[in-house]
Amino acid sequence: MRATDAVQRGRESYALHAWRDAYEALAAADEHARLEAQDLDRLAMAAYLIGRDDAAAEGLERAHLAFLDQGEVGRAVRCAFWLGIFLFLRGRHAEGGGWLGRAGRLLEPARDTVERGYLLVPGALQALQSGDPSTAHEVFREAAGIADRFGDPDLVALSRLGCGQALVAMGNATDGVAMLDEAMLAVTTGEVSAVAAGIVYCALIIACRDIFDWRRAQEWTVALSRWCAGQQGLKPYRGQCLIHRSELMQLRGDWPDAMAEVQQACQHLAEPPGDPVLGMAHYQRGELLRLRGELSRAEQAYRKAGEAGHPVQPGLALLRLAQGRIGDAAAAIRHVVTEAEGDRVKRARVLAAFVEIVLAAGDVDAARPAVDDLDELSGVLEAPYLRAVAESARGAVMLADGDVHGAYRVLRRAWTTWQGVDAPYEAARVRLLMAQACGELGDHDSAAMELDAARRVFEQLGAAPALARAAELSGARKQPAPGGLTPREVDVLRLVATGATNREVADRLVISEKTVARHVSNIFSKLGVASRAGATAYAFRHELV
């Protein structure tokens, strides 16, 4: 293929969002002829979108120099801007800052250009990330004014995204969400570049998740999935989309599908190495493993998340609670809550875990003000999910305080709210508390019905720790087991009957494999069976599973 034909094919593929074809055609042309500045820019962007970061950086540097040779300073500044942003995303802050500084020096001081608006964005992001949303909002608004004045679609979308994020961080969720929707509207017109569109999609979904607006997060995740499907060979953004899909599936109770999505995300993000989004994927995987009771594997996932630079709390503290290490869990979650002081979004994400852990530690006095904070935050953010979180925590504290009648009324309201947001696991956990309240009131029939309803959900989900809690509340451990089995042997037999290996049983019960093997041997001996199949049949015959 002649170089001119390859260039033409590359341009056509680029226009069709066929990034892999565009990159291959333009790269082939580049081997035989000198590409124009704009084609170098296309080559660099296509390289970035298919995950060839080094080629993208090289292409942008060459495009920057080519635009300068042509006297197109504005286009050269944009190349330097995007190169700086890409390097920052890869953690190469010194190089990224150098390119952004170079872009700033190229601008003529007295000249009003759209590129000046682009160069406001990094400073505004730094202010937002350092806990100064007010300053960030002012700078993003200035950038938005420039974007409107020049009618630049990418800058319109990025500046409105920043304004929305800053407003949310300032506690003005209503206006913040409206601004985020404006940013998304700019993207859906189709005029925004693929790089800017992907940034807006992912940041908007995270913002919705941070304020517990799961309905809007789900809508935009569906839109992001559809958008990713139309981008041939897309590498960035697709992994984050899979993570968000996993989170939503987890909320709806589709745990096997949620695990499949996040495992796919981990594989997708592993190459090339260094993608910070990989930490988010490992954290989500850790959450699912913890809920299923695979505690040692959950710990490995949290550790990988931390190594990738992603926060591991409150998941790791809740894991310590599940392991029975209540002191470690309480120390960790207290530290996290203290660190989140003054940041409403961060506090909202950890306060529910704080209440659960300090109640387990017997510190009701610490739980009460945390519940008050949750109530206040749920009023500010106006999210049904957060309202359900606050009501659940309030009911748990009232139950611990001995206000059983009041606790039941609040918990019933929380259960209704969880049902409304289609969160079966959280709704079932509330039913455990309702069962406890009914039992303390002497209403044993209602307590049994609540426990049965919760247990069915936990069995469907495979939520082993929650099932164990349901068994404790039902008093199943206190009933004499058939075959002379001990309560721990019954626990082991139940898991063996689900097909779990000794290693998996050990993970679920937080004991060693050697201990599990001894229990299995004792079970075989007491039941007079010679295999796991025989023990499983016994378990089902005697309704132990």
Share of residues in strands: under 5%
Q: Characterize the biggest β-sheet.
A: none
Q: What structural class do the secondary elements suggest? A: mainly alpha
CATH superfamily of the largest domain: Tetratricopeptide repeat domain
| Number of helices, where a helix is a run of at least 4 consecutive DSSP H or I residues | 30
N- to C-terminal distance: 67 Å
Name of the CATH architecture of the largest domain: Alpha Horseshoe
Oligomer: single chain
Radius of gyration: 27 Å
Number of domains: 4
Q: Which residues sit in consecutive blocks of at least 5 with pLDDT less than 50? A: none
Percent helix: over 70%
Mind telling me the CATH class of the largest domain? Mainly Alpha
The helix-strand sequence is HHHHHHHHHHHHHHHHHHHHHHHHHHHHHH
Please explain how this structure is put together.
The chain is mostly helical. It contains 30 helices and no strands. It is elongated and about 90 Å long. The chain starts with a helix and ends with a helix. One of its GO terms (biological process) is regulation of DNA-templated transcription.
